[in-house]
Structures are given as structure tokens and as C-alpha cells.
Write a structure and sequence with these properties.
Layout (H helix, E strand, L loop, with lengths): L2 E5 L47 H15 L3 E5 L12 H4 L1
């Protein structure tokens, strides 16, 4: 049997391409991070090392697992909430 183990994705549904990746908050690359002042600080289409996982990359990952790896089952462990500690709420986590 083949399985995929996925853990700690920290999906950020508020990720915005072109947002500032160094905004001074616990989590940047979001709609409230502001526009990046330079190309080096601009969140990319497929993500940014300084930020949480964006939906484009998540969808690509899941498609690859489904189409190429073709697991018999998937284990999804860990936490998947983003690191925006300054604005997390119980309802947003659920």
C-alpha cells in the first residue's frame, strides 16, 4: 500500500501575491501586509519562504499527490492554521 503523510501545512487563505514579505507582523504576505516596496520583498505566485503556504501551492501539491503519487490513503496530521497570531480566533481556526 502507498500512503501520503501531510503535516503542518499552515495554509494562509489570505496570502496575496505582491504583498510585503517583511511587514513586521507575525505573518506577512497577506492582504494587510501592504504592497512590497521592492521585488525582493514581494510575495511570489507560488509562495514565499518567509510566509505560510498559499492556496496555489496547496492545490498544486494536492494535484501532484493525487495524479502522480496516487496513494491508497492520506494521513493529514499536525496543525494547518496560519501563523497570524495577532488575529487568530476560535472561529477562524474552525
Amino acid at each position: 500500500m502507498k500512503f501520503a503523510f501531510i503535516s503542518d501545512l499552515h495554509i494562509d487563505y489570505d496570502y496575496v501575491e505582491g504583498a510585503d514579505n517583511d511587514c513586521g507582523k507575525p505573518l506577512c504576505c497577506r492582504s494587510d501586509s501592504g504592497i512590497a516596496p521592492s521585488k525582493e520583498r514581494s510575495a511570489g505566485k507560488w509562495g514565499d519562504y518567509s510566509c505560510d503556504l498559499n492556496v496555489n501551492t496547496l492545490n498544486s501539491l494536492l494535484s501532484h499527490i493525487k495524479d502522480e503519487i496516487k496513494p491508497d490513503f492520506v494521513l493529514w496530521a499536525g496543525d494547518s492554521i496560519p501563523h497570524n497570531l495577532d488575529s487568530l480566533t476560535f472561529d477562524s481556526n474552525v
